[in-house]
Amino acid sequence: MDEGVMKTYARADEVFVSGHGAVLQDSTGREFLDFLAGIAVSALGHGHAGLAAALRDQVGKVVHLSNLFRHPYTEQVATRLCTLTDMAAAFFTNSGTEALECALKLARKAMHVRGTPQRTSFVALEGGFHGRTLGSLSLTHNEKYRKPFLPLQQCTWVAPEDSDALARTLREQQAAALVIEPVQGEGGIRELSTGFLQRARELCTETGTLLVHDEIQSGCGRTGRFLAGQHAGVIPDVVTLAKPIAAGLPMGACLTTAAFADTFQKGEHGSTFAGGPLVCRAALVFLDEVERGLLGNVQDRGLQMRAGLEGLQREFPVVREVRGRGLMLGLRLHHSADQVQKDLYRAGLIVNCTAGDVLRIVPPFVVTESQVKTALQTLRTVIAKLPSTAPTTAPTAAPVKEVKK
Ligand SMILES: Cc1ncc(COP(=O)(O)O)c(C=O)c1O
After folding, report:
1. Tens digits of per-residue pLDDT, 330-340?
2. What kind and span of H or E run contains 241?
3. Overall domain count for the chain
4. 193 and 148, same structural domain?
5. What kind and span of H or E run contains 102?
6. N or C: lower Cβ tally within 10 Å for the chain?
7. Which pLDDT score is estimated for 209?
8. In what order do the strands lie in the sheet with 252-256?
């Protein structure tokens, strides 16, 4: 197994060959309920007929052009994304980490344009995850990911919800950008409060720091609105998207407001593959589904799932906390979530473990009422077998200080 491949992943043994909706099938014909969706990606589930038709059509026409030439779909995707996010311009990428790199470069360039090129540092939050390339890795809080690659870019981390520390840091640092996830994904499905998000906006405006919302995991409708920041009524200067944006094809986007739309000049940023016709066709299929009301299902199934998880919390003391909203949910346990995830997997439910003690539940947006019911039953069966309040044995991957508001 894994012959000829770098040893960066711990993969399950099963070989998956097909799927339909929120169901995945392995090579033995066994079906699994996929409540991980390729780590919060496959919004339209598997085997989506409209996506297959659009891709077949596009493959028969033109797959790749580079950004030296035009195709009909770049502007269509860009303008629709701008409308949904209150932004004015998009730069397309092939992944989340590249979208974040674009945001960091944009912030640096904006400081040059403004005549403050000495403002090079970044501020981010404890527990935050922003990617694995050198720039985005510099802001990712978990030391395990950064340590082997030091030195990186200068970044200061502040505890989530600590508005005073954030004010102090932004005033002292005179950083290029503050980068935050409105709902931390890898940090344990931790939702930032409306008050903290609004205060971060005010402080960035006051200090001339660009506010970047990393919505790579929380965005594109996963929390029930197109952006998680929209629940708090906050408009950042830059927003990064990826994961579900092209229904499973590799695509990301860095979007910015009119004030920063012309920050990059020709040739100052680029990508060979990004925003090509094939991924843009996929993104249009996803955006069409959003327009047809897909986020209504995210809201309804999210409420159903959350109510079920809260029921488990009332029933089993080993369940510590229910986190998140929409279809970005976390079940925090007094137990290693890693072990529970393996038991769930054996029982046919795919989720994963984040921050050591949190089960991350991020199903496709098309998940059905009966699939949510089945997933809750499987969770109940597995959780019922756990010792009642065993202390967590797993290290918390991204320790987050509890701060009184
Ligand atoms: C909030 C956030 N930012 C950035 C990334 C990096 O995205 P990618 O893995 O597509 O490079 C992720 C991936 O999990 C993420 O959740």
Report:
1. 999 999 999 99
2. strand 238-241
3. 2
4. yes
5. helix 96-113
6. N
7. 98
8. 89-93, 252-256, 238-241, 210-214, 177-180, 122-125, 155-158
